[in-house]
Amino acid sequence: MIIPSHMVWGYVFGKGTARFQRTKPNLALLILVGALPDFDLFTRQPYGTLFGHHGISHSWVVIVLISLPFFYTFGARTVPYFVAVLQHPVFGDLIANHIPLLFPLTLAEMGLDLSDSNPAVEVGLDILGF
Predict the structure, then answer these.
(1) Which of 25, 34, 51, 90 is deepest in the core (most CB within 10 A)?
(2) How far is CA 1 from the centre of its chain?
(3) How far apart are CA 14 and CA 81, in angstroms?
(4) What is the Cα–Cα distance from 115 to 106, expressed in whole angstroms?
(5) Beta-carbon neighbour count of residue 45 at 10 Å?
(6) Is residue 66 classed as helix, strand or coil in its secondary structure?
(7) Confidence (pTM)
(8) What Cα–Cα distance (Å) separates residue 109 from each residue in 19, 63, 68, 122, 128?
(9) In the chain, what's the furthest Cα-to-Cα distance?
């Protein structure tokens, strides 16, 4: 998926979660955190390496660990943002690419890799999100 798609799906999943909680999240922040794992594009490390694109920033374990202080500080109000950022690797990249989802347990990459095998499905998901 492309970065705007991650942003849109972060908004969709975060806003949906907030509806169940009956809270009103900051929509701009939902959009931002949806693309947050892609900050690794700016590290200048090779793709698929530990700190390169689709490295540890796409690991649900790392995302959970980084989110713990926010849960401690803000409690349940953190949930929509947590869901928005977690959808990036679990929904977006797991479907479209392959990522080390279980780092640090393993660096083995998982995913359906639809961006290579069936790009029409990935484009369809992008359109559906928008």
Answers:
(1) 34
(2) 10
(3) 6
(4) 23
(5) 14
(6) helix
(7) 0.82
(8) 33, 17, 25, 19, 26
(9) 43
